[in-house]
Each structure stands twice: as C-alpha cells, then as structure tokens.
Automatic annotation (TrEMBL):
Positions of the Acyl-CoA oxidase/dehydrogenase middle domain: 136-228
Necessary cofactors: FAD
Compositional bias segments (type: Polar residues): 150-161
Domain Acyl-CoA dehydrogenase/oxidase N-terminal: from-to ranges: 19-132
Protein's name in the database: Alkylation response protein AidB-like acyl-CoA dehydrogenase
Keywords for the protein's UniProt record, in alphabetical order: FAD, Flavoprotein, Oxidoreductase
Pfam family, one: Acyl-CoA_dh_1
Lineage: Bacteria, Bacillati, Actinomycetota, Actinomycetes, Kitasatosporales
Subunit structure: Homodimer.
Coiled-coil zones: none
Gene3D superfamilies per the UniProt record, alphabetical: Acyl-CoA dehydrogenase/oxidase, N-terminal domain, Butyryl-CoA Dehydrogenase, subunit A, domain 2, Butyryl-CoA Dehydrogenase, subunit A, domain 3
Annotated signal peptide: none
Amino acid sequence: MNDHKAPFAGSGLPDCPPEVAELRGSVAEFVRERVIPCEPVLDAGGPDAREALARLQGEAKDAGLWALPLPVELGGQGLPLSRYAHLAEAEGAGDHGPSALGSAPILDVRMLARHGSAAVRDRYLKRITAGELRTCYAMTDPDTPGTDPAMTSTRAHSDSSGRWTLHGRKWFTTGAGEADLVTVMARTDGDAPHSEGLSLLLVPTSAPGFRVVRELPILGAGGQWEIELDGVTVPADHLVGERGQALRIAGERLRLGRVLRCLRWLGQAGRAYELMCERARSRTQASGPLADRQLVQQLVFDSLLAIRTTRPLVYEAVARLEAGQDARVETGLAKVAAARMLQQVTDAAIQVHGAAGLGPDTPLPALFRAGRAARLLDGPDELHISAVARQVLRPAR
C-alpha cells in the first residue's frame, strides 16, 4: 500500500468546529506522511512491525495527537464522540492509523472504565491508554453463529474463592496474536435462559492455559485469530460488569463500534476515490486520457454519490449515540450503507486502474478486502436489514 496521497476529505462534511478542522488536518497529514509509508512493514507483522508501530506511537505522542478520544484522567485528550468522529475518518484512511494514534482501544477503555472492577481499572486502564498493553475482544465460538451470541459454548465456572476458570475456543478475534488482554464472553450460568447466562471476563494472555491456535487470514490478509482457553483461571475481580449481563454490555460496545467502523470506512473509501481520480487524470491512451471516457466518469460520479449520501447517515448515528438516544435504526442504516459504499468505491477504483488495481503497487486490493469483509463484520448486512425493518414496522403505540 504505497500511495502517499491525502485521504479524501471533500465537501459534504458535517459542520466541524475550526479547532477540530485544524486537528483533522494534522491527523490526516500524520496518516499520509508517516503511517501509510510504513504499511508494508506493519501489514507483515512480526518484530519489525512492532518496532515500527512503537516508533509511530512515539511520534504521535510528540505531535500531540495521541489518544484523542480517550479520557483525560487516563492520559488521553478526552474528545467527545461528535468531535472525534471527524478525526476517525482521517485516522481510518490507513488500517494502522488508529493503533498508531492511540485510539484503537477506545471500546475496551470505555467498557472497562464503566464496567470493570476498581482493581481492573487501577491495574490496566492507564497502561492500555498509554499503549503499553494491547487488548482484544473475543465473542464468537467456532461452529456457532456469530449473530447469536446466546449460543456461546465457551464456559466459565467460579470456585469457593470466587476465581473463574474458563474452557472453550474463540475465533475471528481481531489482534489476538499481539494482545496482552482479551475480554472473553463465556457462559457462567448453564441453567439460566440463554440470553441471561452469559458474562464477560478479562483474561491476561500470559495466563496458563491460554493459547493462540492459528491465524485466520481474511481473503488472504492476516489480523484475525483463533484462541483456546484450556482451564485458564482469573481472579474474581476480572469479571466485567455484573454476572449474566454480557449481552447488555456487548450491545453498548457494538453500537459504538459499528459507528466507528463506518467512520473509518469513509476514510478508506475516500482514499480509494482519490486514487481513482488521480488514475483517470494521469492515464492516457491513444484516444486520450481516461478522464474523458464517459464510463470512467460514471464510475467517478457514482462513487462520489455513494460517499456523499453515506456520510450523513453515519453522522446522524454519531449524534444520536452521543445524545444517549435510541440509535438502533440509525446505526443499522449507517452500517449497511457504509459497508456497501466501501466495496462499491474500491471496486470502481480497481476498474479504473485495470490490472494495476489487482497488484501490489496500490492499496486497492487491501481496501477491497476491507469492503467485502465490512458486509459481515459486526453483524452481516442481513441482520441489520431485518433488525431495522422490524423496528420500523412495529405497530404504533
């Protein structure tokens, strides 16, 4: 992924306070000038990737761009969601932007700050915010549908001292190969109704019995993992929230997580769009530049239309979440629209590039993989379509 063009900002952005607009420019420049050139090393993983990421994180701290949405008392900068949303697009133009800028653990930090025990908060939160500890979240078991977490088969039981012992497997756990802590959804009450017998437990990956089973490439790209918990024990105070309340906490997490993904997908689509326009302007055939071809113009128009019509849906979901309002319909609409938009725009960009769009010299293959995976991540399109339709079609009260 070797392009060095600025992520597409365009007009059509919601109103952005001047100080946030300036900060957005700084974030976009950091991603463009520092993160994107390092993508081949970061994508490869291993010691070189860890060294490169640590260097970028140090540079982000020096530039005053570190942990922008994380709480001030933990070492972040405390930007509210409505302001951070403008930055999340710019961060998301590069897959590693959130990690390099320290915003990647926002979901874990918020969850643990709200639902973690005092011991967990004191022991881990500042170190997570500082980038010293890496976290991940494990919900889906192999051979059970990820859309129905109530079917979780991973189990945990407590002994007379309150310690928890976990047995089971999880897969498609993002970042588990490098994580220090993993939040695991497990069945803690076998006799309770399926939706009420699940709890969340925070597990150090250094604990005996924790094992990374294998990496699960997504359309050839890494980053997802299968893990095993074979008699892993954790203290009683590593229960996250109340026993049996995993789905309620997971719902909070997923609603924000989906909106953050949508914002980052907008950033990635903007990157693909800029590459497409540059290619159309610069590529010349015997009959003239590609930009003069009506079919290429159609691809450019349709892509811009997709970006511009998706962005307001995403920011409407942001506004409702920040206001504490029911955002289920808005989040569902935004998630489906953004996933489709990213796949559409990257596919168009590949088409304009021709064979070059399939090769290693542009980020387009990786962006296209992201677009295809987006239609399954955090629930497939079909789940959100059905959920939104049921909500809309409920009889008026």
